[in-house]
Design goal:
Layout lengths: L1 H33 L2 H33 L12 H27 L8 H27 L3
Helix pairs in contact: 1-2, 1-4, 3-4
Length: 146
């Protein structure tokens, strides 16, 4: 069962991280150069249909695998061993991603216009970096560290 859960997790990670890399390195620069919010909105409306389910899949499968590795939930944030270091890092990254997403959703996107595109750009870049951190931490956890 673990292999199937891991496979789902990795597939979801490729969608989430790949989508954000495309957004940060191709879509965002075009939108900033053109000062056109529509470029971002068009991408996001399409990406959200697969990106959000991918993120939810990552969260659920990640929690499943973390529980398999360390069934004592209170140990997930102790950073007392290699496994709990990576689990804690992934959960902290998830928390930071959630905070950025909430801030973007309720503060930045409702007022999104050409003048606020750079602020949205920083949110996009931050979530992209966090998504790469997710991948790095996942590889470290599954490979016994770096």
């Amino acid at each position: 069962m673990h292999t199937y859960i891991l496979l789902l997790h990795i597939l979801a990670a490729t969608i989430w991280t790949g989508g954000h890399l495309i957004l940060a390195f191709t879509v965002l620069p075009r939108a900033l150069k053109a000062r056109d919010t529509g470029i971002l909105v068009d991408f996001e409306s399409g990406f959200e249909r697969i990106g959000i389910p991918a993120l939810i899949t990552q969260v659920l499968t990640g929690l499943w695998m973390a529980y398999e590795i360390e069934p004592t939930l209170s140990n997930w944030f102790t950073f007392s061993g290699e496994d709990t270091n990576y689990i804690g890092l992934k959960l902290a990254t998830l928390g930071a991603t959630a905070l950025l997403a909430l801030n973007a959703r309720f503060r930045v996107i409702p007022t999104l216009r050409a003048e606020t595109l750079p602020l949205m750009g920083w949110h996009i870049r931050a979530v992209t970096v966090l998504s790469v951190v997710f991948v790095i931490a996942g590889v470290g956890l599954n490979q016994g560290g770096f």
